[in-house]
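job 3f2a | input accepted
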Amino acid sequence: MKDRYRVFRRGWGTYYCEDITTKKQESLHTRDRNEAHRLVAAKNEHDKAPSFSLHLARVYWQAGDPAAATRTWQNVMDEIPKLKEGSTQLRCLSAIKDEALNPLRNLVVLETRAEQFLKVLEAGTVSTNSYLQRIHRFALDMGWLPWPVLPRKRWPKVRFKEKRAVSRAEHERILASEKDPNWRGFYEILWHLGGSQTDMAHLRAEDIDWPNGTIAYTRGKTGSLAIIRFDEAVAGLLRSRPAEGYLFPQIAEWRHSDRAKAFIRRCRLAKVAGVSLHSYRYAWAERARACGYPERFAQQALGHNSKAVHHAYSKHADVTVPSLDDWESAIAAGRFVVQDVFFRGGRPLGGDSSKFVAVLREVAGNQSFT
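job 3f2a | predicted structure (370 res):
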């Protein structure tokens, strides 16, 4: 049988391979003659006996990685949570217990076929699809797979249930139906600060900086710092909470799933449907975007490290864009939307309101402003 590929050398010394059938040429990225001929010989061998060459590739791969012959998908799953922390690690540990993944657990990674992945995806849920993709990518990134088991374009699209924000009217109905002052205060904090339910339940009196009027806490999910300034309405609520320790000591002891179930029951009584405690986080992001709140301030307040994540939270905001003429007229009249009030020259101004006013006057040129 005639060889399909041939090797030749360009004038600048690099060896190339040509497919005699299609006339397609590609660089072998080498100037070594022996190496070039070995690469082309391997391509010809694969063309004549693809099954044997695949088996040979596995032999070579196992020779370079002795554990490859026995490494199973369960071994891969066990390694992923070690790189996570906090609530993300807990979710990961819970996800890899998915029963739909059972057919893969004791299967050797190198011996996995695409149809085995497809059967798992067919039997599983959206979560199975999402986490199996993560497990697959992790094995590729770690060099435990020489090539993808399932090509990227062949994965079923992950379709999550649409999430939405709680509206102001719904929030007021929930408060009106809630008689327990602890839960009322908790829902109010969620509305005003936009934190996740676990972070807000674990807020402590020590997180409040009264002189600067800010609350700072470390997000349990990502470990990032969230800093948000509060107004007089929130200050009144905070003063009604304990002066030390957890602001909501009883709610802090509940598991996040129990808090979620309690909220669902409250929503049923208030005739509110389609929202969860996390909907308050979406609501804060949408309110911020709708009123023109600077994006970097909103990211800092919510503790979002990624703009993509922040955009996902605020994508349904109802934003009215002013005309350019109106905007120019407002600027000329000295009415400004100042985005650099708290950060000038890369340095935070802190909580001193006099600095806030000074910067406004500097930008406005001592004109009147609103």
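job 3f2a | Residues 96 and 298 are 33 Å apart (CA to CA).
job 3f2a | closed
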